[in-house]
TrEMBL record:
It comes from Galeopterus variegatus. Coiled coil: none annotated. The gene is LRRC8E. PROSITE patterns: LRR. SMART domains: LRR_BAC, LRR_TYP. It is found in: Cell membrane. The chain crosses the membrane at residues 27-47, 117-137, 312-334. Its main location: membrane. This is Leucine-rich repeat-containing protein 8E.
Length: 795
C-alpha cells in the first residue's frame, strides 16, 4: 500500500494559515484530497493485483483480420462453452510462464496508455493542484509576509486591549439619545475651541467621545504588562502596514496560481473526456509469439477496467467541481477591487472614525480574512486607529504616573505657587487632575494634549505653561479657566500655533508668548485680538516681529509691563508704544536698536526700561528721560556704548543704572549728581578709574565694577556709607584703602582676581562682613589678623 500520509508534505501548512483560506480554497482542498485518494487507490490496485489476463484466440488464420475478442462480446457464456474445442499446438512444461509472458507483453503493447497510466495521471495532476493551491504559502517572497501578518493578527485578536477598546465603544453606543445630544454639543464646542485646527482634526474630535467624557472605572482591567504588549503591537502594525502596502506580490501570486489551476483544469477535463472511453474490459492483442506459444492472437481481460471507468467518472466529476471553484475565484478576483480595503463599516460600528483605509497586499489579505471571519478585521482595525493608540498611551501613562508619584514632583516656583512640571511625556496623565492642590501646571514637549473635563478638579490652578505642547481645550474647560487662570505661557515653533482659546481667558493677568512669525508675515507682525483680556497687565512676546503688534493697543489702558524679545531681528515701527499710557515696565531685548526710540519718552508712567542686547552706541537721548519722571530703573547693558553723556545728571530720580558689558573707558563726573542712585553696575567694561564724585552717591548700596582695568580706587568712594555690595574683582588693584573700614553696612566684598598683596585689617570694622561674603584668594584671607578672621567667622 502507498499511504496517503506520504503526500502530506505537498499540502502541509501551518494551522494558523486557515484564516487566509476562503471557502472555495477549503472546498478545493477537500476535492484534491478526494482526487488524491482516487489516484492512490488506483495505484495500489495496479501494483498489488494482476493488470491483465490473456487467452489465446481460437479463430483460424484466415479470420485473423477480425478482432480476436469480437465473438465474445455479444454471445452468451453457454454458447461459448458449447463451441469449445481442443486446441492443438506446441506443448511444453512452461504453460504458466508462457501466459505470464503474454500477459506482460500484451499489457505493454495492446493496452491504451490512458487505461494503463490513469491512476498515476490522477496522482500527478492532483499533486500539481495541491502545489498550485499552497505555493504562495511556500514561496519566500510571500510566505514571510503571510507569516508576519498571521502572527500579528493572532496577537491583535487575543489582545486584552482589543476587547477593552471595543467594549468601551459598545458601551458608548448604548447611551441614551439625550446623552448623545449632550455629547455632540460638547464636541461641537470643542471643535469651535480648536481655532486653527483644520477640518480633519475636527472630524477626529467628532469620533473621540471618550476624550470628552470622564474615563470609566474599567481602567484597572488592563495591567501594565498588557498595556506594554499592546503598545508594542501598535508599533508592529505600523511598520508592517508600511512594508506590505508598498507592493502587491501576494495579490499577483494568488492570481497567477489561480489562473494556472484554471488552465490545468481545462486541459485535464478535455483530454479525460476524450480518452476515458479507452478504458475497456476486453482488449484484443496480436503478437508474433506462435513459435513459442502456438498462437499469435489473444483476447485479454483488463481486470481493473470496470473499476477504473467508475473512478474516472468520479475523478472527472471532482475535476469539474474543482474547475467551477477556480472560475468562481477568478470572478471574485477580477470583479471586486481587492487592492483596496475600506473600514467604513467598522468605523460606523466602533465609532473610531480615524481608522484608515488600506491598499495593495494589506487590503488583499484583509479581504481574504473577511471570507473566513469578519471579526478578525474588526479587531485588527483597533490597532490601526490613532484614537485607540492614544487611549492606550493614556492608560499606560495613568499606570506609570500615579497620584503619589506626581505629588513627589510638586515644588514651589519663583512666584511661590505650588507647581507640577512634566516634560517629554507621550501624553498628559489623567491622574494629574486628582491633585487638586496644584496651583501651577508646567507642560513641556508633550504632544497633542486634550484637556478632559477632569480639569475642573484643579480648583486652585492659576498658572499654566505650555512649552512645545499643543493643547485642545473643550468649551466646558474654557468656561472653567476663563476667570480662574491668571498666568499662561505658550512656547511654540510659530505664533500661529497659539490656540485661540488663550485669547478668550478674561481673567488673564499675564500672557507670555514665544514663537516665530513666518518670514512673509514678520513685517506685519499680526497677533490675535486681545480685546477680551480685560485684566491683562503683563504681555511678553519673544519672536521675530518687524514692529510692535497692533493688537497690543487693545490692552493699552491697563497693560503695565510689556516685554519684546526679538532674537536680534530689527524692530522698526515703535510709534504704537505711545498709546501704552499705563505702562510701567518696558523691555526691548535684542531688537536691533541703534538708538533709544523716541516713543519711549512719551511714557509718563514708565518706571523700568530694559534695552539689553541691542546695538546702542550713543545714548545722547538720555536727556529726554527727564520726561519720564517715574523712571527708577534703566538697563542699558550688553550694548556697545562708548561713553555716558553729561546729561545723566538730569536723572535725579534714577535708582538703578545697569551699564555692564559695554565699551566704557570713563564715567562722567556728573554721575555723582544722580543722588537717588542705589545700584550702579558698570562691570565688564574698560574703565581705568572711577571719578571721585562717585562719593556723592550717598544712597548707593550696590556697586559693581568687576572685570575692568582699575588700578586704584578714589578715597571718596568710601564716603558711600550705605554700601552693602562692592564688587571689585578681576581688576588691576594693588592695594585696598584702609578707609574700607568705614563701610559698616558692607556684607559682600569681591576682591579676587586682582594684584593685592595683603588685606587691610580695617576690614574687621565692617560689622556686616562675614567670611562667606568676602570673595578673595585664600592666601590673602589667611594674612588677616586672627582676631579679624575670628570675627568674620562668627555666626
Amino acid at each position: 500500500m502507498i499511504p496517503v500520509a506520504e503526500f502530506k508534505q505537498f499540502t502541509e501548512q501551518q494551522p494558523a494559515f486557515k484564516v487566509l483560506k476562503p471557502w472555495w480554497d477549503v472546498l478545493a482542498e477537500y476535492l484534491t484530497v478526494a482526487m488524491l485518494m482516487i489516484g492512490v487507490f488506483g495505484c495500489t490496485l495496479q501494483v498489488t493485483q494482476d493488470k491483465i489476463i490473456c487467452l489465446p484466440s481460437h479463430e483460424p488464420q484466415e479470420n485473423s483480420s477480425e478482432a480476436p475478442c469480437q465473438q465474445l462480446l455479444p454471445q452468451g457464456v453457454s454458447e461459448q462453452m458449447g463451441g469449445l474445442r481442443e486446441v492443438s499446438g506446441l506443448k511444453n512444461n512452461l504453460d504458466l510462464q508462457q501466459y505470464n509472458f503474454i500477459n506482460q507483453l500484451c499489457y505493454e503493447t495492446a493496452l491504451h496508455w490512458y487505461a494503463k497510466y490513469f491512476p498515476y495521471l490522477v496522482v500527478i495532476h492532483t499533486l500539481i493542484f495541491m502545489v498550485c493551491t499552497s505555493f504562495w504559502f511556500k514561496f519566500p517572497g510571500t510566505s514571510s509576509k503571510i507569516e508576519h501578518f498571521i502572527s500579528i493578527l493572532g496577537k491583535c485578536f487575543d489582545s486584552p486591549w482589543t476587547t477593552r477598546a471595543l467594549s468601551e465603544v459598545s458601551g458608548e453606543n448604548h447611551k441614551g439619545p439625550a446623552a448623545g445630544r449632550a455629547m455632540a454639543t460638547m464636541v461641537a464646542s470643542a471643535g469651535a475651541g480648536l481655532g486653527k485646527a483644520d477640518e480633519e482634526e475636527k472630524e477626529k474630535v467628532l469620533v473621540e467621545p471618550e476624550k470628552v467624557v470622564t474615563e470609566p472605572p474599567a481602567v484597572t482591567l488592563l495591567d501594565k504588562k498588557e498595556g506594554e504588549q499592546a503598545k508594542a503591537l501598535f508599533e508592529k502594525v505600523k511598520k508592517f502596514r508600511v512594508h506590505v502596502e508598498e507592493g502587491d506580490i501576494l495579490y499577483t501570486m494568488y492570481i497567477r496560481q489561480t489562473v494556472l489551476k484554471a488552465c490545468k483544469f481545462l486541459a485535464i477535463l478535455v483530454y479525460n473526456l476524450v480518452y476515458v472511453e479507452k478504458i475497456s474490459f476486453l482488449v484484443a492483442c496480436r503478437v508474433e509469439t506462435s513459435e513459442v506459444t502456438g498462437y499469435a492472437s489473444f483476447c485479454c481481460n483488463h481486470t481493473k477496467a470496470h473499476l477504473f471507468s467508475k473512478l474516472a467518472f468520479c475523478y472527472i466529476s471532482f475535476v469539474c467541481v474543482y474547475g467551477i471553484t477556480c472560475l468562481y475565484t477568478l470572478y471574485w478576483l477580477f470583479h471586486r477591487p481587492l487592492k483596496e480595503y475600506s473600514f467604513r463599516s467598522v468605523r460606523e460600528e466602533t465609532g473610531m472614525g480615524d481608522i484608515p483605509d488600506v491598499k495593495n497586499d494589506f487590503a488583499f489579505m484583509l479581504h481574504l480574512i473577511d471570507q473566513y471571519d469578519s471579526l478578525y478585521s474588526k479587531r485588527f482595525a483597533v490597532f490601526l486607529s490613532e484614537v485607540s493608540e492614544s487611549r492606550l498611551k493614556q492608560l499606560n501613562l495613568n499606570h506609570e504616573w500615579t497620584p503619589e508619584k506626581l505629588r513627589q514632583k510638586l515644588q514651589r516656583n519663583a512666584r511661590g505657587r505650588l507647581e507640577l512640571a512634566l516634560c517629554m511625556l507621550p501624553g498628559l496623565p489623567d491622574t494629574v487632575f486628582e491633585l487638586s492642590e496644584v496651583e501651577a501646571l508646567r507642560l513641556e514637549a508633550i504632544g497633542d494634549i486634550t484637556f478632559p473635563p477632569g480639569l475642573s478638579q484643579l480648583v486652585h490652578l492659576q498658572e499654566l505653561s505650555l512649552l512645545h505642547s499643543p493643547a485642545r481645550l473643550p468649551f466646558s474647560s474654557q468656561i472653567f479657566l476663563r476667570d480662574r487662570l491668571k498666568v499662561i505661557r505658550i512656547k511654540c515653533e510659530e505664533l500661529r500655533e497659539v490656540p485661540l482659546w488663550v485669547f478668550g481667558l478674561r481673567g488673564l493677568e499675564e500672557l507670555h508668548l514665544e514663537g516665530l512669525f513666518l518670514p512673509e508675515l514678520a513685517r506685519a507682525a499680526t497677533l490675535e485680538s486681545l480685546r477680551e483680556l480685560k485684566q491683562l497687565k503683563v504681555l511678553s512676546l519673544r519672536s521675530n516681529a518687524g514692529k510692535v503688534p497692533a493688537s497690543v493697543t487693545d490692552v493699552a489702558g491697563h497693560l503695565q509691563r510689556l516685554s519684546l524679545h526679538n532674537d536680534g531681528a530689527r524692530l522698526l515701527a515703535l510709534n504704537s508704544l505711545k498709546k501704552l499710557v499705563a505702562l510701567r515696565e518696558l523691555e526691548l531685548v535684542a531688537c536691533g536698536l541703534e538708538r533709544i526710540p523716541h516713543a519711549i519718552f512719551s511714557l509718563g508712567a514708565l518706571q523700568e526700561l530694559d534695552l539689553k542686547d541691542n546695538h546702542l552706541r550713543s545714548i545722547e537721548e538720555i536727556l529726554s528721560f527727564q520726561h519720564c519722571r517715574k523712571l527708577v530703573t534703566l538697563r542699558l547693558w550688553h550694548n556697545q556704548i562708548a561713553y555716558v553723556p553729561e546729561h545723566v545728571r538730569k536723572l535725579r530720580s534714577l535708582e538703578q543704572l545697569y551699564l555692564s558689558h559695554n565699551k566704557l573707558e570713563t564715567l562722567p563726573t556728573q554721575l555723582g549728581l544722580c543722588s537717588s542712585l542705589r545700584l550702579l553696575d558698570v562691570s565688564h567694561n574698560g574703565l581705568h578709574s572711577l571719578p571721585p564724585e562717585v562719593g556723592l552717591l550717598q544712597n548707593l548700596q550696590h556697586l559693581a565694577v568687576s572685570y575692568n582695568a582699575l588700578e586704584a580706587l578714589p578715597d571718596e568712594l568710601f564716603f558711600c556709607r550705605k554700601l552693602r555690595t562692592l564688587l571689585l574683582g578681576f581688576n588691576h588693584l594693588s592695594q585696598l584703602s584702609p578707609h574700607v573700614g568705614a563701610l559698616r553696612a558692607l556684607s559682600r566684598l569681591e576682591l579676587s582676581g586682582n594684584r593685592l598683596e595683603a588685606l587691610p585689617e580695617e576690614l574687621g570694622h565692617c560689622a556686616g562682613l562675614k567670611k562667606a561674603g568676602l570673595l578673595v584668594e585664600d592666601t590673602l584671607y589667611e594674612g588677616l589678623p586672627a582676631e579679624v578672621r575670628e570675627k568674620m567667622e562668627e555666626e
